[in-house]
Amino acid sequence: MTNRTRMVAPRNVINAKQLYTFYILKELSKGQEIFGNKVLETFKNAFSTSALPFPVSSSTIYDTLYDLEQKGYVTSYWVGDEFINKRSKKMYRITDAGKEYHKLHIANYVDALNKNKSVIDMLIKMLTK
User: Which spans are transmembrane here (predicted)?
Assistant: First the structure.
């Protein structure tokens, strides 16, 4: 019998959709416009060297953008010209409601992440010291 080491992503610690929501609203709050593949690429690059990469999902990113638009936090428009064989993409802009939501809720979300981090740090300390 061989011993196996199993690493499990902390899915119950980090809600990917919430993370994408706050990241997207943060970027849009800077006055930038964003599209789904840019978010995907940013997350893949950011976690490419991590020992346990964040489970990046394009479907969750697009679902998040759709939800943000349904809630009125972002608006979208298409760019590109099929006539000259350029692929079109859906670009997103933040609304005033999106800016307000981000402003009101980002501190609580970051605080929750910090609390989770401190619990994980404590558990590591308990197991290694």
Answer: none
